[in-house]
UniProtKB/TrEMBL annotation:
Top-level division of the source organism's lineage: Eukaryota
Pathway of action: Glycan biosynthesis; trehalose biosynthesis
Name of this chain's protein: Trehalose 6-phosphate phosphatase
Pfam family, any one: Trehalose_PPase
Originating species: Musa acuminata subsp. malaccensis (Wild banana)
EC code(s) of this entry: 3.1.3.12
Keywords assigned by UniProt, alphabetized: Hydrolase
Family designation: Belongs to the trehalose phosphatase family.
GO molecular function: trehalose-phosphatase activity
High-level lineage: Eukaryota, Viridiplantae, Streptophyta, Embryophyta, Tracheophyta
Swiss-Prot/TrEMBL catalytic activity: alpha,alpha-trehalose 6-phosphate + H2O = alpha,alpha-trehalose + phosphate
Function: Removes the phosphate from trehalose 6-phosphate to produce free trehalose.
GO biological process: one example: trehalose biosynthetic process
Length: 365
């Protein structure tokens, strides 16, 4: 086995957990082409246990204790085989760096970056998910050469506050709230700054749901309800697993009062959002269009993300046959991304290499 193929014990444990929930692959299954949101019908019963099981399966690297609860785990060899097969299907973007760069020759790279789990490591307290100075410097350098957007589930103000870089495009609330730099560097297409909100009419409803969710779940120890302006996050990372069903029931009882809101799931978080046809994929398309690349053949969008919501953007790139997605994950997940990176530190390495590659190729011109 080569050094590259050695799989750390915690990753083996994580694969074991993921494999123990075969019915709840990542991302959630799509039924009849529609996204797997918790509909009003499902809210009345039926598939609730599936959601609680899916909560158990989410982000297994951060919950090694689950292994013991999940019955007989697959053997270590089976885990290693699965890991290797997955890496073959989604090779490291660092290993394939030269290949990626030769595919981008003559094309304008546009960089899209998710925030949590991509630029900042996952931590228990969402308010402390800071990115390192080294990562900030890498993003700043990338943005000097390429149009760069941060696409996050966080509300716009919060993600801007974490990243603290001008000259970027920011898409908060899962792409529902978009703002470009005051003086865009790269676009010739439009001098006007980009500003867009996809769900303004939902604001009062989302705010009311935020209050109701905070009130209804306050008896559950460890829960954190986060106001992300056009969506609400109910975090269960610090909630005892024995209380997850109860928490889900509490969230469900609130959602019954808001038929125009639906539920999705991220890493140890339930996300409540408006029932509109808008997601990170749509935000990516909107930004490409705003930058003047709508029908352009010579553009190479690169989207790096770690979460289920990023799959919408990976899929858009796959369907367009343009650019590619990079999934940040230490263990196998079903994904529409082409390449993978293990963790935020590898994302930084990739960004640094990209800048270096650009410097060298500019010199050579
Ligand atoms: O689209 P993203 O930028 O990845 O945002 C998705 C959610 O990220 C945050 O939650 C996640 O990160 C937290 C901090 O590391 C972690 O505690 C939590 O368990 C993760 O789900 C954020 O707090 C959410 O509001 C975002 O929707």
């Amino acid at each position: 086995m080569t050094k590259q193929n050695v799989v750390p014990a915690d990753v083996v444990a994580a694969i074991a957990v993921a494999s123990s929930y075969p019915l709840f692959p990542y991302p959630p299954p799509r039924a009849g082409g529609r996204k797997k949101y918790l509909s009003q019908l499902e809210l009345r019963g039926g598939r609730i246990s599936a959601w609680v099981d899916s909560m158990k399966a989410s982000s297994p690297t951060h919950d090694k204790g689950v292994v013991a609860l999940s019955g007989a785990p697959p053997s270590v060899d089976a885990c290693l085989d699965e890991q290797s097969a997955w890496v073959m299907r989604h090779p490291s973007a660092l290993t394939k760096f030269e290949h990626i760069m030769s595919a981008s020759k003559g094309k304008q790279i546009v960089m899209f970056l998710d925030y949590d789990g991509t630029l900042s490591p996952i931590v228990d307290d969402p308010d402390s998910a800071f990115m390192s100075d080294a990562m900030r410097a890498a993003v700043r350098d990338v943005a000097r050469y390429f149009p760069t957007a941060i696409v996050s589930g966080r509300c716009l103000d919060k993600v801007i506050n974490f990243v603290r870089l001008a000259n970027l495009y920011y898409a908060g609330s899962h792409g529902m709230d978009i703002k470009g730099p005051k003086k865009p560097r790269h676009t010739k297409a439009r001098a006007k700054p980009v500003v867009f909100q996809a769900a303004s009419e939902f604001l009062p409803m989302i705010q009311a749901a935020y209050k109701a969710l905070s009130e209804r779940t306050k008896s559950t120890a460890g829960v954190k309800v986060e106001d992300n302006k056009f969506c609400v996050s109910v975090h269960f990372r610090c909630v005892d697993e024995k209380s997850w069903s109860l928490l889900f029931e509490q969230v469900r009882s609130v959602l019954k009062e808001y038929p125009k809101l639906w539920l999705t799931q991220g890493r140890k978080v339930l996300e409540i959002r408006p029932t509109i046809n808008w997601d990170k994929g749509k935000a990516l398309e909107f930004l490409l269009e705003s930058l003047g690349f709508a029908d352009c053949k010579n553009v190479m969008p690169i989207y790096i993300g770690d979460d289920r919501t990023d799959e919408d953007a990976f899929k858009v790139l796959r369907d367009r046959g343009q650019g590619f997605g990079i999934l940040v994950s230490r263990f196998p997940k079903e994904t529409n991304a082409t390449y993978s990176l293990k963790e935020p530190s590898e994302v930084k390495d990739f960004l640094v290499r990209l800048v270096e590659w650009n410097r060298l190729s500019m010199k050579a011109r």
